């Protein structure tokens, strides 16, 4: 699966129509040749990729941020996350986003996994890190100028309750809660 | 968090520019007023929502489908999934997609959770179901005419290896593997 272009179900690009290029995403529509020789169209959102951080405080709470998500017209509680900047290593982005969004710095980092969030229509890849041994920074938060977040620190049982009652309804954050549950079972 | 419009970080819509309306997604750019009174733009992808199914065979294997994902220009191994059709209940979609993509019917269904896949730019909500007590249908597969999939049945250890070596790199599928691991720990 590592090779990119020789899959037996490969869809060859016949033409590409650029639709939109924005601050965060771009959109194109490709005409493709299907494995059976017929043609179809694919609507493709391009995204620079992102990082997210499962961060545990010394009191063994998980750090969450609540922010308004315009696509949903509601606020969501999520683990800290952010877009990759051009040329930035994912771990650097993760360290920066944790500090900017939560005011915490971590001295222990582990790369956990990475996943595509919506492979049917988007190429967004999210890298997931675990951060431990957190220290509160003395400085003010310095989130992006269009970003407003409330920081929360929840126990596992609070996070589990939030998954059940819908306050946690974000894919990477639901993954983080399962990961944490599993970590507890392993002792 | 259930109310939609009264969050203290709400971003009021000043104007909406429709950019694209396709077969699967649509795209608009909203001018918004931020909580600090300044304005910004938000790029918003609208998606009808989807379902995915963690399905266990009688041999306690998980059912996966491999398909080419044009946004990534590679094939991905994922749990069975599909878009909601207008007016269709998520459980009905889940039953239909499992049958169409894998040739299995299940008599035991449980709604597990639902999550937003990419809330920063898209409104896609994925409902996750668990299916047990599977029966192989006698009929041929009837996938959509532009959909080509290979069905796989993996043990937990095969799925865990696939997460580690990158053959599983899809958010809902990584979630499914963690869920399954946790299920084993709970006995």
Structure overview:
The structure is a homodimer of 187-residue chains. Chain A is an alpha+beta fold and 187 residues long. Mean pLDDT of chain A is 93; it is low at 1-5. Helices cover 20% and strands 42% of the residues of chain A. Chain A has helices spanning 90-102, 156-164, 171-186, and strands at residues 12-21, 26-33, 39-46, 50-55, 62-69, 74-78, 81-83, 104-116, 125-136, 149-154. In chain A, helix 2 crosses helix 3. The first copy, chain A, is elongated. A four-stranded mixed sheet of chain A has the order 7-4-9-8, sandwiched between helices. A three-stranded antiparallel sheet of chain A has the order 1-2-3, with no helix packed on it. The first copy, chain A, has a three-stranded antiparallel sheet with strand order 6-5-10.
Low-confidence stretches of chain A: 1-5
The overall pLDDT average of chain A reads 93
Which class do the helix and strand fractions of chain A yield? alpha+beta
The number of helices of chain A is 3
Rg of chain A over CA atoms, rounded to whole Å, is: 19 Å
What composes the largest sheet of chain A? Answer: 4 strands, mixed
Oligomer: homodimer
Give the SSE string of chain A.
EEEEEEEHEEEHH
Q: Given the C-alpha coordinates, what overall shape of chain A results?
A: elongated
Portion in helices of chain A: 10-25%
Strand segment tally of chain A: 10
The proportion of strand residues of chain A reads: 35-45%
